[in-house]
Design goal:
The protein is of the alpha+beta class. It is built from 6 helices and 16 strands. It has a 6-stranded mixed sheet. The chain has a 3-stranded antiparallel sheet with strand order 8-2-11, covered by helices on one side.
């Protein structure tokens, strides 16, 4: 009896599944393409779109977070008047000394503030003096040993000055941290402007600093490759721009087209000036790959969205599966319940009772 009821329930259920599948199919097939939604414009007339064989150079690079800059300060000399400190290194040269005991070397200022000129000349206190004062102090000290000494002293290395060399991240507020020399704002600047800004900041502490600045990692200028997932969710890859990529390069970065993708590809390019419209550049994947054509192998520009549309058959199959799956679970549960009831009716004492002779 229960089996008959289940059979009567199964037939209407199958009709419902069929109708739902037909409705789902119609919704997926009739879905408008994303490229047809929103305001669009063709590429501006008179402005050729750069392609693989006709690339254009990008505008002058402007620094933005989170770029990484490579900053090297070539000249680190403290602003005068500089007071000599312990562990500073001085270059000292004295004319008039004996050839057997010359003074022409680099000397470190010890923790007591003295430099040791050798066993014949002993130590001279120089800490807290300026370079000129140190020259005079050494000259007076040597008068008892050397006849008319001529002394030259230069600061070779200052222990109190931080060297600047290496990678510096542009923080979210647009500044780079120069350590003990403070922060300097570089966001929105070109490399030449940022170099001047860094040198201006360092000039508060150093004498005529000379800095070298370049971009170590181009993180702020990117493009996107969006792969429609055929009902499994879209995938978005964010890739840094170097100025030389084409559509083929971009798709190679994501290891080519997946089985979910169609060959329907286009670039959505934001229009300069913030007009709210975007230019749609259709890509002929077959011509690029099989025919080696370059006309639609466009050069990728910062902000481009390369959209790879889904395979419609796979998307239809996935949509149909989403609709049918709940009913399959219901039918499976129903059939399992039917089998359980039949087993109980046939073996009221259980399977173990079969061998007992009852």
């Amino acid at each position: 009896m229960l089996a008959g009821r289940l059979q009567r329930f199964a037939l209407p259920t199958l009709w419902i599944v069929a109708l739902a599948a037909a409705t789902g199919c119609r919704a997926i097939v009739d879905r408008p393409e994303p490229r047809l939604v929103g305001p669009q414009t063709p590429p501006p007339i008179g402005e050729p779109v750069p392609t693989e064989k006709d690339k254009s150079t990008l505008p002058i690079y402007t620094i933005e977070p989170p770029d990484i800059l490579l900053i090297d300060v070539l000249k680190v000399v403290p602003k005068p008047p500089y007071r000599i400190k312990a562990t500073d290194v001085l270059s000292i040269e004295v004319e008039g000394t004996s050839d057997f005991a010359p003074i022409r070397d680099r000397f470190i200022v010890d923790s007591g503030g003295q430099v040791d000129l050798g066993p014949r000349y002993h130590k001279v206190h120089v800490a807290g003096l300026t370079i000129d004062e140190a020259v005079e102090a050494i000259r007076k000290f040597l008068l008892d040993i050397v006849r008319q000494p001529e002394v030259s002293v230069t600061l070779f290395q200052s222990a109190g000055l931080q060297p600047i060399s290496g990678e510096h991240l542009v923080s979210p507020d647009g500044t780079v941290n120069l350590g003990t020399y403070g922060l300097v704002n570089v966001a929105g600047m070109t490399l030449d402007e940022a170099k001047l800004a860094v040198e201006e900041q360092l000039s508060k502490f150093l004498d005529r600093p000379q800095a070298s600045l370049s971009v170590f990692s181009y993180n702020s200028k990117v493009y996107y490759v969006i792969t429609e997932g055929a009902g499994s969710g879209d995938q978005v890859a964010r890739l840094p721009i170097t100025g030389n990529e084409t559509v083929l390069d971009a798709i190679a970065q994501i290891n080519g087209l997946s089985r979910l993708s169609s060959k329907h590809i286009w670039i959505a390019r934001p229009t300069p000036g913030g007009s709210g419209c975007d230019a749609i550049l259709p890509v002929s994947w077959t011509e690029i790959t099989k025919g080696a054509a370059t006309a639609t192998n466009y050069q990728v520009l910062p902000g481009d969205r390369i959209f790879i549309a889904e395979n419609k058959l796979i998307a239809f199959d996935a949509g149909l599966n989403h609709i049918i799956a709940p009913f399959e679970r219901i039918m499976g549960f129903t059939l399992l319940s039917t089998q359980a009831v039949q087993t109980i009716n046939r073996f009221p004492l259980g399977i173990s009772g079969i061998g007992s002779g009852f």
